[in-house]
Design brief:
heterodimer, A: alpha/beta, Rossmann fold, Alpha-Beta Plaits, four-stranded antiparallel beta sheet, B: mainly alpha, 2 strands, about 5% strand
Chain lengths: ~300, ~280
């Protein structure tokens, strides 16, 4: 059996008295698109920085394709590409010069530069100084540098940060393309819809602890809570009735429907109650999203951004 | 080979930044101005020099003028000596801290290259930049001085008036500028050390200049209370370049000064390596 693309065991990290990671263990199999979720301050970025040896862990180990990042840093990072938060480049240099600098560190042939710039759609702007790039272009250049050394593992930390919906879709399409090319992707994001759309497996951390890890659809089906979209008339009366019920976790109006989150077994009684109070029910559509699941296990509302 | 490529990368970054050109621009603008000023006031300067010489006594008779390319370069070295460190710190202070502040380490340090190699390459590029600034200074002042004012014997003030014959002056300058580079490497190493500690390119510059100005003050203020600490200040040995123009050349004294400066330089470098290799990149 081949070694996992990424294996984290018993990771601890503290900054002064603040414990950021507590006995964190993860396993990402080769070929997966792995979502790494958590509310702000959960320890996602610290974990990623430890994986890439930017930050040193107090204890624990990180292995990339079976090689320890501590003992064999060079041999583990040679197969890894990364983009951490917003990519910052040497703004006074062109995209091509930036990538030449990075290519020279890994014996990557310069011909690869045009290839990766073509993949992210920046080939025609390669001689422009990065200072002239828009945020979306910088983000795409960030992805270009991440795949420059033809990595087998791609670590992406909030790759769609600061992008407009069109840019987010582009990045998501690129991630799918990398995955189709056989690259294992470790994707940290607070955009749950994004993880839901792209990832096959995921882990959720909170306050430095691993809360859940597994297949995305399996994890969603284990949820004890259910989200439903109810088309009711009159909608205001329906919402008022629902809000007075016990066990309601969240209720609100969304695009002309009532969006209700509550324990699965309680939903039929809510529908009966609404009907008995003279509310006309046109449809009840079950929806369990990663967002609901995340909310139910972390207790933190996710930070939502508009997605396409 | 990898180290050479890394050094080339660092040089590319240094060249790409406008602040790297400030030193060259400042020297490039100042030199012609000084040369022109000497042409304009040469006669006045010569008579002033004769008057000062007469004060020394000994019946010295000045025939012609002491002003030539060598003399002007030597004079400029004396005038600008305390200002050059500022030009050095502009780049050396930014070479690590600038990347920390700009966030580029998130990309650069995730490559499969050891941090030690990276910090060595940054140091080498900084030292190279410093040497280039000094050589530019030397080339421009000597080149313009010789073209504008010609060559001749060099008159220097050392235990009275010392006249070095024109044939021995060029290699004295080579020696002096070599010492000057070594002295400025201490400034580079000091700034580099500060640069490894923070993530802001301005901080190391201010820190290094503050240390140098305070040390210079303690070195030059003629008070007995400072006498005891002077041997421990690296600025005490900054004038080693001037000793290349003494006669005979005080080799033992020069070796001692350079040795002490080398210890300081090594110390600053070791500390910066130690910090950089261990630091968490959080920006």
């Amino acid at each position: 059996m081949s070694a996992p693309a990424l294996e984290i065991t018993g990771l601890h990290k503290s900054f002064g008295k603040l414990n950021v990671l507590n006995d964190l263990s993860l396993r990402v199999e080769t070929g997966e698109v792995f979502g790494f979720l958590g509310p702000n301050g959960a320890g996602k970025s610290t974990t990623i920085r430890i994986i890439l040896s930017l930050v040193k862990a107090n204890s624990g180990s990180v292995n990339i394709f079976g090689r320890s990042i501590k003992k064999a840093r060079h041999r583990s990072l040679i197969h890894t590409g990364a983009m951490i938060e917003k990519p910052d480049f040497y703004l006074y240099l062109s995209a091509e010069q930036n990538l030449k600098i990075l290519a020279s560190m890994t014996h990557t042939p310069y011909s690869r530069i045009d290839r990766v710039l073509d993949i992210v759609g920046l080939l025609h702007r390669k001689t422009d100084k990065v200072r002239k790039y828009s945020q979306g272009m910088k983000q795409r250049l960030g992805l270009a540098q991440a795949i420059l050394n033809s990595p087998r593992l791609l670590v992406l930390d909030e790759p769609t940060n600061g992008l407009d919906p069109g840019g987010m879709k582009e990045v998501r399409d690129l991630i799918r393309r990398f995955s189709d090319d056989g690259i294992t992707v470790f994707l940290s994001s607070h955009l749950l819809q994004e993880v839901e759309k792209v990832c096959t497996s995921m882990a959720i951390i909170n306050e430095g602890y691993l809360i859940r890890e597994g297949n995305v659809s399996a994890l969603l089906s284990e949820s004890s809570e259910q989200t439903v979209r109810i088309a009711a008339d009159p909608i205001g009366k329906a919402l008022a009735l629902i809000e007075h019920l016990p066990d309601v976790i969240q209720a609100g109006i969304d695009e002309g429907h009532i969006r209700l989150i509550m324990p699965k077994e309680k939903i039929p009684s809510v529908i009966s109650h609404l009907a008995s109070q003279g509310v006309s029910i046109r449809s009840v559509i079950p929806q369990t999203t990663l967002e609901d699941y995340f909310l139910s296990i972390t207790g933190n509302p996710p930070i939502l951004q508009e997605t396409v | 080979m990898l180290l050479l490529r890394l050094i080339r990368n660092e040089i590319t970054k240094i060249i790409g930044k406008k602040r790297s050109l400030i030193g060259f621009a400042a020297i490039g603008v100042l030199m012609p101005v000084i040369m022109f000023a000497f042409s304009y006031h040469q006669s006045g300067f010569s008579s002033d020099f004769s008057r000062r010489s007469a004060n020394i006594g000994g019946g010295l008779i000045m025939v012609g003028t002491p002003v030539n390319g060598y003399f002007i370069t030597h004079l400029i070295m004396n005038f600008l000596w305390v200002h050059i460190p500022f030009l050095i710190t502009l780049v050396a202070g930014d070479v690590i801290a600038g990347e920390g502040g700009a966030g580029t380490f998130r990309i650069y340090l995730t490559r499969p290259v050891s941090r030690l190699r990276i910090v060595i390459s940054k140091l080498c590029a900084s030292l190279l930049y410093t040497a280039t600034v000094i050589l530019f200074f030397a080339g421009l002042s000597l080149g313009m001085g010789i073209l504008w004012h010609g060559t001749g014997d060099l008159v220097v003030m050392h235990k009275g008036i010392l006249i070095l014959s024109s044939h021995m002056v060029p290699w004295r300058f080579i020696l002096s500028f070599t010492f000057a580079i070594l002295v400025m490497w201490v400034v580079t190493a000091l700034t580099f050390m500060f640069s490894s500690m923070v993530n802001n390119g301005i901080g190391p510059m201010i820190g290094a200049m503050a240390v140098i100005i305070v040390s210079f003050a303690l070195t030059t203020i003629p008070l007995d209370i400072f006498e005891a600490i002077r041997p421990y200040l690296f600025t005490t040995y900054f004038d080693v370049w001037q000793k290349a123009f003494h006669d005979p050349i005080p080799w033992f004294n020069i070796s001692k000064s350079l040795g002490i400066l080398a210890v300081y330089t090594s110390g600053f470098i070791i500390i910066s390596f130690w910090i950089f290799v261990r630091k968490d990149i959080l920006t």
